[in-house]
Amino acid sequence: MTRFGISATWIIAGALWAAPAWGVTASKVNDKVIDVDSGAALWAKAQEEVVTLMAQPIALPRPAKTETAQIRVKAVHDGSWIAFLLRWKDSEKSEAGILGKFSDGAALQFPVGDGDPPPIFMGARGQPVHIFHWRAQYQRDAEKGKPEMTDLYPNMNPDMYPMEFKDPGSLKGKIGKAQQEVYSHGKAAGNPQSYLKSGVDEIFAEGFGSSSVIENADSKARGKWSKGEWSLVITRPLERSNGSVLKAGSPAWMAFAVWQGDRDEVGSRKSVTMSWLPLEVK
Prior knowledge:
Layout: E1 8-12, E2 15-19, E3 24-28, E4 49-52, E5 54-55, E6 70-77, E7 81-89, E8 105-111, E9 129-135, H1 136-144, H2 149-152, H3 177-181, H4 185-188, E10 200-205, E11 212-213, E12 220-226, E13 229-237, E14 252-259, E15 271-272, E16 277-281
Parallel strand pairs: 3-6, 3-16
Antiparallel strand pairs: 1-2, 4-6, 5-15, 6-7, 7-13, 8-9, 8-14, 9-10, 10-11, 12-13, 14-15, 14-16
């Protein structure tokens, strides 16, 4: 038996899977939660659930084993914003930074629209999902600045990276960012992944390979790593225009994913929930 009912067991992609039957409860608090910290006193009375994860078994490349077997989850809201506190074990703090190194990360997924939720694995055509994806790499960039090309490729010896040179030489005046970014192909193309982030991406998807990062993200996130554990708070508006909507008293669903960068987890190599979990907003 689980807390909310009986678990069922299936065989998926050769792996034994016990479907969880619990949920997450978000109680209303008097404090504003938009910038709440993981150490805030309001978390003491929040209900905690232990959520089971397993190695993503469907999309290639799949992880060899489950690196994050479970996360602990709490949630609170203030009537306008909702905050989720996630805690999971991770023996090493990974922030990517150089080529071949990957970032720790975590994600929340919500269905877009009412009724039965779409397929758990990133939705389906005409059945979109709304994802909030935090990366330790983005948070480091926001705190310390994005790494330069010489940081990412320390063994290369170019004469100059046009987007980074500090001395304008014989050119008159100061070289502005707009001129420098001409040489950054991602920025020149308007790719939102090329710009500095606060720590979290908002993504819409309608199945594998359809992820689209939006530019006008409203959500926030802040993670802290200490003694082999991440504590991460992701906050979002309860109601997102053209996105997922959460209302007190209305049924809702959510799912989770975690990446451990030091274990070479990136993209489809991750630990995930294998079914939608009920989310109760009180």
